[in-house]
């Protein structure tokens, strides 16, 4: 049951975790297991930020071996290459752990990478890249890598009929990748498991001010819907608010350095030929960045873009420039399909909370855990660039950093593990802190990701939810209208 602000304020917490995305939820679950008294808060709904609007890929780390330019980039910057190897090792480790521990949340897909004779990476370099991936893995979850010569690939690969530049194709490299199905559910499972262990967990609760006291932090919070307020006391704070990390830090009475660079990743969705179902294709865009055609349910999406973004992350959408770029790239990849703007089923975009680095205008892709004691904020930590796939390891690493400063008040405790079965609507309404219809449609039921976004079901679901949520007829209509407007804004095709 979602606690009241007043009940939250009645306890002193070892750690207040700000941000209930996938990394915040993982940190809360790990911390409470280690005996910490935990409060987990989010200004919006659980998993409603970058966690829900990514490429939804539990990737092996191949993209990190594509430097976004010539391979001499790594020669000129060996430190960056070592960072990449560490990131790849972590990607392979968390991929293996998640697939083995929660196979029902990881959907295997067969990915294909066309290798062209005039492309940025020669066939032998692709072999080396996959050799590195294998060498850095625990070999418990296979990549199933295979490089097929052009003639054989053109005869049997599901994407071959629509590929461009067939005369320059040297081979197609294929491997097994995994997709989150779906990340919002993973966030909820972790947050609710933390609650079962004793954590105070609450959505739609915004931090408005933080003041350091001798024995910890006083944190003013406000209900994002009702504007009710309360003050919480915590010995330490983990700021895992993603794109809002700097905004949360700014709530303190001590100025600190910038931590986040936001880049937008936009995607467009199509219905491709049925032969491609469950199959994906990895490529490199015209600007030298990884570009995917990924299966999603019975659709496929293309993306992502990568552009600097300094607006409101909650309003990030695929704008005209994004759609034009993605459509050009899709047609360059598959010219025979002749994809047009009218063929787009939907779009979406998210903002990556990359690590701020003044030397890298587009941000740094290495994860950082900042101990802000040196900035005059003792027992305060922030996270940048916490990836979707590495959430469990990131949660453990955050708790390990916390332990260097603050000891837990209670002994460690075991379980429960995050739940596996998808609960029915009645259980969701009773136990999963539904505040808005969008919480149900987008994150609890996943209907926003269907071709029709669940728009034809919204009114019926709102009527069922009304009694549990205390909505009268006017509020029901308001919730349906809000969901429809938000869906068209965030997932529609802009002219």
From TrEMBL:
What transmembrane ranges does the database entry give?
none
Which Gene3D superfamilies does the record cross-reference, listed alphabetically? Answer: Alpha-glycerophosphate oxidase, cap domain, D-Amino Acid Oxidase, subunit A, domain 2, FAD/NAD(P)-binding domain
Keywords associated with the record = FAD, Flavoprotein, Oxidoreductase
Q: Indicate whether Metal-binding appears among the record's keywords.
A: no
Which cofactors go with this protein?
FAD
Q: Name one GO molecular function term.
A: glycerol-3-phosphate dehydrogenase (quinone) activity
Q: Does the keyword Flavoprotein apply?
A: yes
Q: Which domain of life is it from?
A: Bacteria
Task: Give the InterPro entries listed for this entry.
Answer: DAO_C_sf, FAD-dep_OxRdtase, FAD/NAD-bd_sf, G3P_DH_FAD-dep
Share an example GO biological-process annotation for this protein: glycerol-3-phosphate catabolic process
Q: Where does the FAD dependent oxidoreductase domain lie?
A: 14-367
| Family listed | Belongs to the FAD-dependent glycerol-3-phosphate dehydrogenase family.
What is the protein named? Glycerol-3-phosphate dehydrogenase
Q: Which organism is it from?
A: Paracandidimonas soli
């Amino acid at each position: 049951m979602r606690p009241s602000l007043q009940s939250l304020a009645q306890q002193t917490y070892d750690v207040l975790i700000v941000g209930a995305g996938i990394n915040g939820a993982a940190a809360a679950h790990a911390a409470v297991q280690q005996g910490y008294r935990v409060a987990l808060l989010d200004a919006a709904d659980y998993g409603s930020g970058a966690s829900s609007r990514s490429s939804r890929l539990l990737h092996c780390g191949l993209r990190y071996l594509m430097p976004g330019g010539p391979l001499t980039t790594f020669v000129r910057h060996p430190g960056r290459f070592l960072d990449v190897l560490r990131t790849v090792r972590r990607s392979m480790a968390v991929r293996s752990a998640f697939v083995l521990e929660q196979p029902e949340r990881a959907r295997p897909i067969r990915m294909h990478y066309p290798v062209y004779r005039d492309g940025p990476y020669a066939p032998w370099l692709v072999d080396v890249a996959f050799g590195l991936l294998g060498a850095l893995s625990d070999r418990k979850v296979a990549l199933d890598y295979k490089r097929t010569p052009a003639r054989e690939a053109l005869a049997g690969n599901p994407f071959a009929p629509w590929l461009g530049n067939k005369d320059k194709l040297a081979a197609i490299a294929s491997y097994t990748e995994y997709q989150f199905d779906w990340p919002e559910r993973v966030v909820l499972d972790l947050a609710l498991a933390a609650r079962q262990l004793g954590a105070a967990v609450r959505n739609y609760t915004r931090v408005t001010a933080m003041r350091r006291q001798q024995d910890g932090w006083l944190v003013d919070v406000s209900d994002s819907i009702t504007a009710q307020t309360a003050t919480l006391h915590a010995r330490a704070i983990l700021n895992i608010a993603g794109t809002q990390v700097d905004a949360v830090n700014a709530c303190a009475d001590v100025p600190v350095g910038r931590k986040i660079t936001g880049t937008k990743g936009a995607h467009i969705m199509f219905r491709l030929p049925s032969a491609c179902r469950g199959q994906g294709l990895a490529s490199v865009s015209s600007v030298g960045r990884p570009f995917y055609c990924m299966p999603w349910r019975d659709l496929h999406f293309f993306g992502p873009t990568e552009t600097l973004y300094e607006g409101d992350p909650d309003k990030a959408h695929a704008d005209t420039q994004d759609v034009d770029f993605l459509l050009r790239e899709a047609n360059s990849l598959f010219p025979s399909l002749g994809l047009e703007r009218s063929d787009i089923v939907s779009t979406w975009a998210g903002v990556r909370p990359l690590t701020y680095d003044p030397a890298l205008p587009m941000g740094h892709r290495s994860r950082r855990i900042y101990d802000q004691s040196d900035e005059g904020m003792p027992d305060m930590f922030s996270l940048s660039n916490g990836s979707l796939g590495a959430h469990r390891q990131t949660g453990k690493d955050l708790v390990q950093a916390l332990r260097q400063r603050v000891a837990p008040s209670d002994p460690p405790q075991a379980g429960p593990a995050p739940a596996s079965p998808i609960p029915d609507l009645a259980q969701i309404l009773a136990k999963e802190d539904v505040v808005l219809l969008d919480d149900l449609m987008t994150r609890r039921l996943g209907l926003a990701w269907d071709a029709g976004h669940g728009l034809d079901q919204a009114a019926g679901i709102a009527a069922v939810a009304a009694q549990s949520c205390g909505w009268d007829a006017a509020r029901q209509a308001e919730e349906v209208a809000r969901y429809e407007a938000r869906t068209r804004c965030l997932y529609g095709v802009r002219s």
